[in-house]
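Appendix C: a fully annotated inverse folding record. The material below is reproduced so that readers can follow the format used throughout the book. The structure is listed first as tokens, followed by the designed sequence.
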């Protein structure tokens, strides 16, 4: 069972999580990160590192964000791998904790 990046990551894209991933299974979109479920080893190291609390075990993913399972799987195959921390977007702190921001998701690579 893989971990999933969900809606809270949108427009925040903090990259603290990628530095602790032992298998480098994170992929970077313009304003969101995705986890490749075929590479994730279900270690959970990334969960406590996420300032926006956007990473969930697939079993614990809230129902309202179930679409993010397929979204992570699809876009992790298209986006570039990321394994080093980068600065978050300038307005990331303003978006942290904002709900219902799915319409802000940009589905392209940076």
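Designed amino acids, in order:
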């Amino acid at each position: 069972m893989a971990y999933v990046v969900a809606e809270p990551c949108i427009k925040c894209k903090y990259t603290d999580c990628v530095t602790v991933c032992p298998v480098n299974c994170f992929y970077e979109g313009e304003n969101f990160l995705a986890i490749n479920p075929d590479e994730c080893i279900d270690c959970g190291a990334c969960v406590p590192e996420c300032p926006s609390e956007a990473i969930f075990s697939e079993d614990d993913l809230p129902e309202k964000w179930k679409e993010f399972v397929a979204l992570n799987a699809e876009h992790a195959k298209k986006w570039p791998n990321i394994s080093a921390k980068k600065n978050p977007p300038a307005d990331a702190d303003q978006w942290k904790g904002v709900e219902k921001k799915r319409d802000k998701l940009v589905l392209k690579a940076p």
